[in-house]
Each structure stands twice: as structure tokens, then as C-alpha cells.
């Protein structure tokens, strides 16, 4: 397919896909002649990209034209849309047109509907850290793509260690591949534990510590997250999602079946319900109900421009006090 639209905020995964497309499309000996990058700020960028894509490649290989950071998926003027409608069906097999954007294209827009007819749209959005099932699937998929055989425990360890950081995932898998070499046996967790850097102090870990009422550890995790430039609002979004999930579980356990609980809480694998039940066993419904207003206050304070570290510290102390043993 000669036209692609890559979008998403996972910059590493997107750039890796661009590099793969480049390697597949271009003959390196002729790449300087056949590789055109059109920046978003270029005058008449879409027209320039389409004109270049219609130009036959020089020498061997194909031509790759990359329109970077475009907003056509959100807003496309009628003249530009008409130009795409006229040009895309005529793109020669010797050319590949690539559009990239951090924002999701509007599925209702005429441009998006038309592009899907003549091209391929691929998503490279960062998986939310609380969607551990999807992160686990991503770890397994990347390992398979690299031809690596991992034991299930190793997959679990990597999921915990790298979270949704695809750059870190590739680095850790490369490290494991170099160490394991041509050994056909699956890589065991013991080997991975020795080599994999657990560099993520995740917001999910913070949620677990909060529900234990462990104030010193929670404050330390907040500092670690902020020192790693984790956005404060992203930390809060993870906490809200996790505590809302626990509230759903506490409210529905004993009232609905595991399948019904999974559907209500948007959990893809109902088998996880058993383990999640253990996480909320020591918590009261009242504690979880009172936690969400505190988290929403935290989100509101941050959006009003309050100091991130001080505001997070204050609310973390309040949440730990709420979940301290004996305070139910």
C-alpha cells in the first residue's frame, strides 16, 4: 500500500515504524535522491508532498515522501482534500507517501474516511499504565517480533519492569538477546532479573502503597516519579483509574458474577478478577468512596497551577491517612 498515516504519542514506537518503512522502501545507495521529508511548517506542505510522491524515483528502489506532524486528520481545507482525492488514487507503485501526527485523526472527517480507502492508518498511542493486560501483550508481541523466546515469568517481569515505556522495552530485550545468544531455550525469569533494569517507579506502584497507608514510601515514590519527569496529571490519571477500578470491585463483589464485574470495570480478562479481589479484601467501601473526591481535588489543584510536588505530597499524606490500618 503506497500511503500511510502513522499517529500517536509513543514517539519511539512511531519513529521505529518510520525507520522500518524507510528501510523497506529505499535503496540506501540512492536514498539521498529518493527520500523527501516535508516539515509541518513548510509552505504548501501537503501539495509539496503530493507532488514529490508523483515524481518517479531516481535510480534503484522506491521514493519515500514523509509529511511530518500534519494536522490534516483534524482539519483539512477543501482545496487540500480535493488535491488528495485527485492524487492518492494515482500514486505510482514506485512511491510511498507517509503522514505522521501525534493526534488521532478524526474518524468522522472526510479526509480520514478518504485516506482509509486508499491508504493505511496505524496507531502508536502510549498504552495507559493501568492497562497491564495490554502492556503484557505488547511485551509478548515485541519479543516475538525480535524472534525471542521468553518464559511466561520473564514476560511478567518485563511487564512490571518497563511498564508502557517502549524505548526501555526494546533496550532490555536487546540486552537479553545479546546475553542469551543462540541458546534455543526460553529465557527464564532468573536471568532476566539479573539483567533487566527496573527503572520505572510507576504510578501503579504508588497506588498500591497508598492503599496500604505507607506514607514514607508513597512520598518517596512521588519524588522518584517527578524526578523522572513523569507528568503530575498523568500520575493522577493513573491513580484515579486504579482507585475507581478498586471501588467497582468492592461494590460489585458478591453482587455480580466475575464476568459481569469484568464488563462493568472494563477488564478484558475476567480471570484477573480473582487476583483483584485479593487487592481490595482489606479495604472498606467507605475508604474507596472517600478516596476519589481527594484525587479529584488533587487533579483540580494541579490544573489550577499549584506547585506539583507540594500538592502531590499533601494529598498523598491525606490518602495514606485514609487507608492507614484501623481507619476503615
Which properties best describe this structure?
about 10% strand; alpha/beta; Rossmann fold; 3 domains; Zinc Finger, Delta Prime, domain 3; globular; Helicase, Ruva Protein, domain 3; about 325 residues; 16 helices
Description:
- With 328 residues, this protein is an alpha/beta fold.
- Helices cover 57% and strands 8% of the residues.
- It has 16 helices and five strands.
- Helix 3 links the parallel strand 2 (35-38) and strand 3 (63-67).
- The radius of gyration is 24 Å and the shape is globular.
Describe this structure in a few short sentences.
By secondary structure, the protein is of the alpha/beta class.
The order of strands across the largest sheet is 2-3-4-1-5
Mean pLDDT: 87
Instruction: Assign the CATH topology of the largest domain.
Output: Rossmann fold
Kindly, what is the distance between the CA atoms of the first and last residues, rounded to a whole number of angstroms?
Answer: 59 Å
By DSSP, the count of extended strands is 5
**How would you describe the shape?**
globular
Radius of gyration: 24 Å
What is the name of the CATH architecture of the largest domain?
3-Layer(aba) Sandwich
Q: Which CATH class of the largest domain is shown?
A: Alpha Beta
- Give the domain tally: 3
* Beta-strand proportion: 5-15%
Helix content: 55-70%
Amino acid at each position: 500500500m503506497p500511503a500511510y498515516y502513522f499517529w500517536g504519542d509513543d514517539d519511539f514506537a512511531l519513529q521505529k515504524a518510520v525507520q522500518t518503512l524507510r528501510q523497506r522502501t529505499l535503496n540506501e545507495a540512492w536514498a539521498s535522491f529518493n527520500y523527501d521529508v516535508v516539515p509541518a511548517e513548510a509552505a504548501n506542505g501537503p501539495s509539496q508532498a503530493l507532488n514529490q510522491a508523483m515524481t518517479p524515483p531516481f535510480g534503484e528502489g522506491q521514493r519515500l515522501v514523509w509529511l511530518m506532524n500534519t494536522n490534516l486528520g483534524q482539519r483539512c481545507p477543501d482545496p487540500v482534500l480535493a488535491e488528495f482525492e485527485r492524487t492518492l488514487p494515482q500514486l505510482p507503485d514506485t512511491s510511498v507517501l507517509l503522514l505522521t501526527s501525534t493526534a488521532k485523526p478524526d474518524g468522522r472527517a472526510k479526509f480520514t474516511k478518504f485516506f482509509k480507502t486508499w491508504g493505511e492508518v496505524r496507531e502508536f498511542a502510549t498504552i495507559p499504565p493501568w492497562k497491564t493486560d495490554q502492556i503484557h501483550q505488547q511485551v509478548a508481541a515485541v519479543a516475538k517480533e525480535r524472534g525471542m523466546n521468553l518464559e511466561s515469568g520473564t514476560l511478567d517481569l518485563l511487564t512490571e519492569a518497563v511498564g508502557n515505556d517502549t524505548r526501555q522495552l526494546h533496550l532490555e530485550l536487546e540486552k537479553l538477546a545479546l546475553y542469551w545468544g543462540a541458546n534455543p531455550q526460553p529465557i527464564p525469569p532468573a536471568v532476566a532479573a539479573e539483567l533487566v533494569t527496573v527503572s520505572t517507579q510507576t504510578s501503579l506502584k504508588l497506588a498500591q502503597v497508598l492503599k496500604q497507608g505507607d506514607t514514607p514510601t508513597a512520598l518517596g515514590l512521588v519524588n522518584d516519579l517527578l524526578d523522572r519527569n513523569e507528568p503530575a496529571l498523568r500520575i493522577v490519571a493513573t491513580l484515579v483509574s486504579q482507585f475507581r477500578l478498586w471501588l467497582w470491585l468492592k461494590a460489585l463483589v458478591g453482587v455480580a458474577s466475575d464476568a459481569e464485574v469484568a464488563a462493568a470495570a472494563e477488564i478484558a480478562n475476567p480471570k484477573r478478577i480473582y487476583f483483584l479481589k485479593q487487592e481490595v479484601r482489606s479495604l472498606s467501601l467507605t475508604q474507596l468512596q472517600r478516596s476519589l473526591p481527594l484525587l479529584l481535588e488533587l487533579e483540580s489543584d494541579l490544573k489550577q497551577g499549584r506547585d506539583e510536588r507540594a500538592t502531590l505530597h499533601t494529598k498523598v499524606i491525606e490518602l495514606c491517612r485514609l487507608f492507614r490500618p484501623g481507619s476503615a
